[in-house]
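Hi U.,

Before I forget, here's the chain from the pilot set. I'm dumping it here mostly so it's searchable later in email.
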Amino acid sequence: MTMHDDEHGVVHCVRTTAQPDKKGKELKKWREKKRLDLREATGAESSADASSSWISYPGLFAGGGLDVMTALLLRRVLPTIEKKSKLRVLDYCSGNGVIAEAVRRRAKKSKLHLLDADALALEAAKKNLDGDNVQRVLSDGWTSLDASKRFDLILSNPPVHLGLAADFAPLREFLRGLPLRLTDDGVAYFVAQRYVPTRSLTADIDSLRVERDLLDPRFVVWRCARAP
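Structure:
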């Protein structure tokens, strides 16, 4: 810190002679081993049927676990997925893969894509979900996702805050990109707080049909599809 006042500071940073930690030894020191309990989202009666070992790191959303909004989203969507489905699924703003893991438990043959702007979250997701049917994409919004990719199902609990202030720009970008990313019969579901002005955010997106699918005292699950 080279200069500061009561609200702001100037930080001077220089590269050291230390070599990059290519094997991740330093990162491993911060790794948190937990249990992911999906009972609230799946309706399973026992933790044995709905829990698994889970990797997180400090600072990840909801501590790297299942939060109340994601649980609401999954309770609505999972029953609509046939267990033998081979869907192309995108977990948008995936974090360390909670939504993708819940979908995989429901439909093991589905192709999962996890997209997030946080490299640390995707590093945790790499530990949590592996296999040929899982791909991870480091991307700020849609920017780094292959333009040819289309999905049968897109799920998201998108951020609507920057710090403590409301910021709907990420949600707006998510919604604007959906018509180009859904298959003809594809659907997207996302969850948001009731005060989020989803109708206003989608008013000029003529190629997207958006409807309120589930109303909670605090949250709303929205369903989106390509307009005919």
